[in-house]
Write a structure and sequence with these properties.
The chain has two domains: 1-54, no CATH class; 57-105. By secondary structure, it is α+β, with helices and mostly antiparallel strands. 23% of the residues lie in helices and 13% in strands.
């Protein structure tokens, strides 16, 4: 690949955009690997670099939760948070597929809560408008 030597200088925190082909790995400790050898269809681009690696807050070693709380925008780059995000994605996807296959429709409904946040509780009021359970509904009864 063109410019492969510049990728060998990559450090923790750099981000890449990679287009390649997954193949079965012959190495130990991994099942698949990404191959980028055909310049007509494969590419590797550097999207971002860390300006000063010595001050970059996340290293290759384990990160304490306190460190991650201080640098929330970097949390997805850790193995823990990335793994949790992948599991949540897979579970949400499977749930949607399960219900979609059975004819259900996914609808975002408004949340009705007793909490009054920034005046939102004053926008509408939820009440029982029927005085008795078996009385037919009459819109004129609404105060």
């Amino acid at each position: 690949m063109d410019g492969f030597k510049r990728f060998l200088k990559a450090r923790t925190g750099w981000s890449f955009k990679v287009k390649g082909t997954y193949v079965k790995s012959e190495g130990k400790g991994q099942t698949i690997e990404l191959v980028c050898e055909d310049p007509t269809i494969h590419s590797v681009q550097i999207c971002g670099k860390v300006q000063n690696p010595k001050t970059y807050p996340i290293s290759k070693k384990y990160q304490k939760p306190e460190t991650l709380r201080e640098h929330g925008h970097l949390r997805p780059r850790t193995n823990l948070i990335g793994g949790v995000a992948r599991v949540r994605n897979a579970l949400a996807f499977a749930t949607h597929i399960f219900f979609q296959a059975r004819g259900y429709l996914y609808v975002h409904t408004p949340i009705i809560t007793a909490s009054d946040c920034e005046g939102a509780g004053e926008m509408f009021q939820v009440t029982t408008i029927l005085p008795e359970p078996n009385t037919p509904f009459n819109p004129k009864q609404i105060p």
